[in-house]
Design a protein that fits this description.
Elements (H helix, E strand, L loop, with lengths): L2 H10 L4 H13 L4 H11 L11 H14 L2 E4 L9 E4 L3 H32 L9 E5 L2 H12 L3 E6 L11 H8 L3 E7 H5 L1 H13 L3 E5 L5 E5 L3 E5 L4 H4 L2 E5 L3 H16 L1 E2 L12 H12 L3 H8 L3 H15 L4 H10 L4
Helix pairs in contact: 1-2, 2-4, 14-15
Length: 342
């Protein structure tokens, strides 16, 4: 790793720039007296005092701090002796202590910021909603949505329906979070699945990455719940294109009610992806057709989503029927359900 990167990382852990310079210099030179170290640091930090060595008393304070941290020690004399040479020490314990200290400081800053915001809500924000509901409008909506998505740690529950504040584009953040072990459960409205562009650039990649997806003819509201800690709500009707806003719901009985609404709808929704019991001999296009048939979209929509003609779709459906030993689509659906295909 380049020295500049090491210095930057040490500074992030709480060392000053000069302290990081001292430690990295000792790593490169080995043991070194204060006088020689002052000269080396002065040359490295060109332009400081016209390139002259640092005054030794300036270094003494920082060397003492590094000794207290356990990052350096002194050999050839007592810890404070002028004759001693400074030597870097294996840093694991010292850096772990620094990391814990920084973590505690970040936690305190987090609590302070939350407390300050509560004070703002009590004194400045409109009365009556306090810490329950926050209204976000206009150009800030998409930004807040992405920020919430990036901060999620364990679970996302979502009702998905157009129109979209994020313009129905791909969702690389979800795919990244799925890879990190975050669970996504999404109930799509039929209108979302019928949008060929949205299906190909958003829905299908997310399902392939591990999203659990189901579908209903309509969803009751546009809703996303993050880690059971907050929810964002907006209308799923055309009016939301005119009134570009969303509601942020903080922990409350309302948030619990929204989570209950999602679970009820999830149980009633139909799966959009097949499970592991699908026969390995089933062609990939047949798997896709079964997925889309389970959503209830029309044959025209399925053909459009797959980029094939209606006649080709009919041939594929006939092949699936033959595989299942069925005659009608209803029989095929029963067979697929009984055999765990969907």
């Amino acid at each position: 790793m380049p020295e500049e990167d090491v210095r930057a990382h040490l500074c992030r852990l709480g060392l000053s720039r000069l302290q990081a310079d001292i430690y990295v210099t000792l790593l490169g030179t080995g043991s070194c007296t204060t006088e020689r170290l002052a000269a080396k640091i002065g040359r490295h930090r060109r332009g400081h005092r016209n390139g002259l060595p640092f005054e030794e008393r300036v270094l003494d304070r920082h060397l003492a701090h590094l000794r207290r941290l356990g990052l350096i020690t002194v050999t050839g004399g007592d810890a404070g002796a002028d004759a001693g040479e400074h030597v870097p020490v294996e840093p694991s314990i010292a850096l772990e202590s620094l990391a814990h200290t920084r973590t505690a400081e970040v936690h305190q800053a987090h609590l302070a910021a939350k407390q300050a915001y509560r004070g703002y809500r009590r004194s400045v924000a409109p009365q009556g909603t306090d810490d329950l509901i926050e209204v976000v409008k206009g150009p800030h909506v998409a930004e807040r949505i992405w920020n919430f998505e990036k901060a999620v740690e364990s679970e996302v529950l979502r009702f998905d329906s157009p129109p979209y504040h994020t313009h129905g584009t791909a969702n690389p953040v979800e795919i990244e979070k799925l890879g990190a072990g975050v669970e996504y459960r999404v109930v799509y409205s039929r209108s979302a699945v019928q949008n060929a562009d949205y299906y190909s650039i958003n829905i299908q990649p997310c399902i392939a990455a591990g999203e659990q997806a189901r579908v209903l003819p309509t969803v009751p509201v546009k809703l996303t719940i993050y880690d059971q800690r907050l929810a964002i709500v907006s209308m799923s009707f055309v009016e939301s294109e005119v009134k570009d806003y969303l509601l942020v719901v903080h922990p409350s009985s309302l948030l619990s009610a929204l989570a209950g609404l999602f679970e009820t709808s999830w149980r009633a929704a139909l799966p959009m992806h097949l499970n592991d019991r699908v026969p390995c001999g089933l062609q990939p296009v047949h798997r896709r057709i079964l997925e889309l048939l389970s959503t209830g979209v029309t044959d025209d929509t399925i053909a459009e989503l797959l980029g094939i003609s209606r006649r080709t779709l009919s041939r594929h459906v006939e092949a699936i029927n033959a595989r299942a030993g069925s005659v009608t689509r209803f029989q095929m659906a029963l067979y697929a359900a009984r055999n765990g295909w969907i």
